[in-house]
Amino acid sequence: MKFAAIDVGSNAVRLLFTQVFENKDETFFKKDSLFRVPIRLGEDVFVKRKISEKKKDSLIKTMMAFKYLIEAYDPLDYMAIATAAMREAENSREIVKAIESEAGIDLQIIDGQREAEIIYSNHIAEKLDKEGNYLYIDVGGGSTELTLISGSVIVNSHSFKLGTVRLLEKQVSKTEWQRMKDWIKENTSEYPSITGIGTGGNINKILKMSLKEEGETLSYKNIKTIYDSVNSYSFEDRISKLNLRPDRADVIIPATKIFLKTIKWADIKELYVPSIGLSDGIIHVLYEKQKTMKGQP
């Protein structure tokens, strides 16, 4: 079975193609390809509260291109969702209508709670230890989704207006940092030995820069070492010497800050980085929908 997922984020717009294979009691998700366009909608929205005509045009053209790619891939089903930047843009409804009209794609703007639910649809915690306590940390361009999981059950989740692009644009208040700290302290205090699960492009890059493989864990010290190293380079040198993409070279610093603070506040000793994200969660949602339609348990 083939599925496609579109994630319209605050930093980039992504299209993921994935095949799902069922083998007796096991299900395998195999990524075919990922297309990423760094439009950075959050630059407009978090400062001016609306998306400019230039970025609107870029987004519509990207979605038109994605529609052609989806038609060529011919998936069983696909879904397109938008997160923080589109949630807060005053002209988001106008843009959704334009995308529907010109690209034929129904773009759904979801709230932070639904975003956290879709991210958790990957069920990574269950694959690690079904009885363990986990804090799922997904850092995006416009928001950070935190989900506390115990015994494979979601205890609580919350979306904070703390994202990499938002921080770059200096649009995060001290109050929001405090809100996140208070939430973490209040919700994790009764759950000992919490393990972190980190998702998002920046933490994936930090894992690679730490010379670790997927499946290995990062500690606070590992992440702080990478942070200090990257922060010692200028933006230009991060691109030329560290080989970071221009749209990664700036956001990796605020992303690392968010992870470091979260790990410290939750007293997390190790962080798993499964190299998945919102797009992968959408694929899982589509697969579960297909199973329900077939009447499978």
In short:
The protein has 14 helices and eleven strands.
Which helices and strands occur, and which strands form pairs?
Blueprint: E1 2-8, E2 13-23, E3 26-37, H1 42-48, H2 53-73, E4 77-82, H3 84-88, H4 92-103, E5 107-109, H5 112-120, H6 124-128, E6 133-139, E7 144-150, E8 153-160, H7 164-168, H8 174-188, E9 194-199, H9 201-209, E10 217-218, H10 220-231, H11 235-240, H12 246-249, H13 252-266, E11 271-272, H14 278-294
Parallel strand pairs: 1-4, 4-5, 6-9, 9-11
Antiparallel strand pairs: 1-2, 2-3, 6-7, 7-8, 10-11
Helix pairs in contact: 2-4, 5-14, 8-13, 9-13, 10-13
- Measured by DSSP, the beta-strand proportion falls in 15-25%
- Kindly state the number of beta strands: 11
Radius of gyration, whole Å:
19 Å
CATH architecture of the largest domain, by name, is 2-Layer Sandwich
